[in-house]
Design a protein that fits this description.
alpha/beta; 11 helices; 52% helix; 21% strand; elongated
């Protein structure tokens, strides 16, 4: 039975064929079940920090009679996974700061992987900057709109060196722009990114209109105004690049 949401289906589509996949923060265990049933992976380790999600995952694995193929494991991030034990990892449904923390604490495991798929739900620019500075190669990006929320999905090849700096330079874009919106999404002229940029621009303009003027706002408001101007400038640079390809 296909129980995957559109977001999870897009995450699954980013996973390339692998022997063993570890799903960090597995929740109900639907993703590894789907990937095994569709022949993308041979086996999986479904991991979560909470016993409740693992119990749900075990029940669904048993329902699909996949106990010999999917192991469940209580783990804080990648702590219970050994280097080389899996060749692919998915980390989805978490904030960007938490994902960066998991990758930092589990760096030895991450460097041993053939592929890593992440879906950070916040701090997107920080995550992309982290990947670039840690020299991780982002092979592909997708962007999904589901129930009014935007979800970025990145497929990373940890054994290859990052080329995001060179790509940004070739596109004539500042790193702050490509960190914010994704080099590959911009180069694809991704339609969901186009919608996101328009929505973000309108929101920034609306916030600006609601701020007190420079005379009465004080230093904190002035700082917020400057932040919004910088965000709008990044947004407009991205939109200009996207439209140039049409």
């Amino acid at each position: 039975m296909n129980r995957l949401s559109n977001r999870l289906l897009h995450i699954a589509a980013q996973v390339q064929p692998a022997d063993t996949l570890a799903d960090v923060g597995c929740d109900h265990g639907y993703l590894p079940i789907y990937l095994i049933k569709n022949g993308c992976i041979r086996r999986a380790v479904a991991m979560d920090i909470g016993e409740g999600p693992l119990q749900r995952a075990r029940a669904h694995v048993a329902e699909e009679q996949l106990e010999n193929y999917i192991q469940t494991r209580l783990s804080n991030g990648l702590e219970r996974l050994q280097p080389g034990e899996a060749d692919a990892v998915v980390i989805a449904g978490m904030g960007g700061n938490l994902i960066m923390d998991i990758l930092s604490r589990g760096e030895e495991v991450v460097r041993s992987l053939d592929q890593l798929v992440i879906e950070p739900q916040s701090e997107l620019a920080g995550v992309r900057r982290f990947l670039r500075e840690q020299n991780y190669f982002v092979e592909q990006e997708d962007f999904v709109l589901e129930d009014g929320k935007f979800y970025p999905i990145l497929r990373i090849l940890p054994k290859r060196a990052s080329d995001d700096g060179g790509r940004a330079q070739a596109c004539g874009l500042e790193l702050s722009v490509t960190d914010a919106y994704g080099c590959r999404l911009l180069m694809q002229r991704h339609p969901v990114l186009a919608d996101y940029l328009q929505k973000e621009h309108a929101q920034c303009e609306q916030i600006l209109r609601g701020l007190p003027d420079a005379q009465t706002g004080g230093a904190r408001i002035a700082q917020r105004r400057d932040e919004l101007y910088r965000q709008i400038a990044r947004n407009e640079a991205a939109q200009t690049y996207m439209k140039a390809g049409n």
